Amino acid sequence: MNYEQKLLELIKKNERIIILTAENRAAMRNLPALIGDRFIDVGIAEQTMVGMAAGLALRGRIPIVHALATFLTMRAFEFIRTDVGIGKLPVKLVGAVPGFLSEANGPTHQAIEDISIMRGIPGMNIFCPSDEVDLLIGLEEVIENPDPFYIRYNNMQSSVEHETKFEIGKAEVVFEGRDVVILTYGILLKQAVEATEILKLEGKSVGVINLRTLKPIDKELLIKTCKNSFLVVTLEDHFITGGLYSILSEILVEEQIICKVLPIGLNNKWFKPTLLSDVFEYEGFTGEAISEKINIELDKANYQTVQYLF
Amino acid sequence: MNKKSNPELEKIAYKVREHIIRMSTDGGCFTGASLSCTDLIVYFYSNFLNVDKNNLKDPNRDYLFLSKGHDVPALYGTFAELGIVERERLRNHLKTNDYIYWHPNTNIPGIEYHSGSLGHLLSVSMGVAMDCKLKMQSNKIVVILGDGELNEGSIWEGLLIASALKLNNLIAVVDRNEFQANIRTEELIPIEPLTNKFVAFGWQTYKCNGHDFSDLEKTFESLPSQPEKPQVVIASTIRGKGLPSIEARADRWFCNFTHDEVEQLLQELYSKEKTDLKSETLIVR
Q: Is the terminal CB of chain A with fewer CB neighbours within 10 Å at N or C?
């Protein structure tokens, strides 16, 4: 099953659901013909789409709106904040090609601050599936939830066998580990797993957590992880400011936890516009590059693997 | 609906203007902008819209969205006179014990949605209009736009799309008082010829005098019940209408009068003799 098929299933089940797009039909080419007037394409007009979604929600609908993540979250930001956010309406905002997925489009299309700006809206929730399977596992609960949601969409193939139980605000523990734990969301779960495989061969105990929802976030698990790990890594295709690293930092300050954290993200810069595999290479986000960064951090901290072997 | 006669409407409009004047002190409000759309709002809620205190949540009611927002004292006053909000409640204007502030919000019965940031409620009203159409309802969706608000790009985006989506149950009304904030529209960002612009965007366009109840009745009653296109009525109005001492003045948009001036203005409302206003003019933007 893919996103479009899952949407169709939900639309048939729930008459409140209505689909909007700002001429972004990539994820649902077949849907218009199948759902008739429950599909509304407003053209290239993100602000009007979000305003209309608010109006439809006032009438009891659950609008699911689609646009490229940059234009949805930034061009229409004030409409999201003011028309969806203040009224806390159940509008579901689906942002396409977020993070590295804009590939060679260039900085105009790089949604690498989307988490940061969406999480600042009171009542807004954020779902960042790692791949299509993960997306479909959480989609129904996210859509049926009475609050607004930003969905950082992707339809990549899975690199892991996912936990099929989904709960908003609960992360998925992909691997348990004691020395290093990589916290991540979205497409970089694959690279996190690759880095883990390399580090494991070197004798390290490495965990991976797929956050799934960044707001609300699995605070309990993050606190436990930070207290029990030598090094915590935040891995994200997002600016280091405002995303997962910031969320974690706020929790650590609030809980007065001292913990070694390595942020891997985009540090105050746009990424090189090129094809996806070359983005990973160029920007140092391959499994190998990530494992090297982690090893450098471990060396700096005089970390010795053997300390856990006894 | 029991339609009110013109003298009855005029009496209500006087009362609403009294409320607006009384809200123009102890912090003040957007007096000039509120007075320009007072007659429009009184007419809509008295004789045009199927909205009363008993059907505010009925999905078959008509809807009115106040997109220009800062003229909300006209709405508070009208609701007070028509029994949708208790009159005494208007004394809570700007107080922490209530929600009667400078822009509309849904804590006040009858207010369909909040506004204040210009250029928002056209698209929100389009969403409501779309849902009503999908449900085959015959109710009307009215959205009041300021002429200064027409500077916003989202308005023109919305006009284009409402036409494309054939939202023929949508009626936009432009409160054409010829001012934006502190400057005349034609001196800052000229919007004329306005009718031609709406026609070019695919809207059925009408004009009327926004202070003449006979003309309002004639214009709105003659709107076709099954139009092909969304409709817009450009209502000519006067900022500060009813108070000669502030009418059509660029510097009397937001007013915070002294208590004495309020008393004098309440007299001026009926006598039309100009008050000698001493309170400073406020340039808000």
A: C
For residues A179 and A67, membership in a common domain is answered with: no
Domains and CATH numbers, chain B: 36-88+98-238 (3.40.50.970)
Residue among B121, B130, B158 minimizing CB distance to A56: B130
A276 touches chain B (CB under 8 A): no
Residue A20 resides in a domain: yes
* Residue A193: CATH number of its domain: 3.40.50.920
- Residue B283: predicted pLDDT: 67
pLDDT tens digit sequence for B235-249? 999 999 999 999 999
Q: Identify the band that residue B251 occupies on the pLDDT scale cut at 50, 70 and 90.
A: confident
Q: Which of B124, B131, B142 to mutate to test the interface with A (most CBs of A within 10 A)?
A: B124
Q: Residue A99's domain spans which residues?
A: 3-152
pLDDT band at A305 (very low <50, low <70, confident <90, very high): low
A163 is a domain residue: no
Query: Does residue A21 share a domain with residue A99?
Result: yes
What is the per-residue pLDDT for B284?
62
Residue A44 touches partner B, C-beta closer than 8 Å? no
Give ipTM to 2 decimals. 0.96
Of B59, B114, B128, the CB nearest to A55: B128
Same domain? For A142 and A196 the reply is: no
- Chain A CB within 8 Å of residue B13 CB: no
Average pLDDT along chain B? 96
* pTM recorded for the entire structure: 0.96
CA distances for B101 relative to A153, B98, B207, angstroms: 39, 8, 31
- In terms of CA atoms, which chain B residue is nearest residue A80? B120
Mean pLDDT (whole number) for A200-222: 97
A54–B113 CB contact, under 8 Å: yes
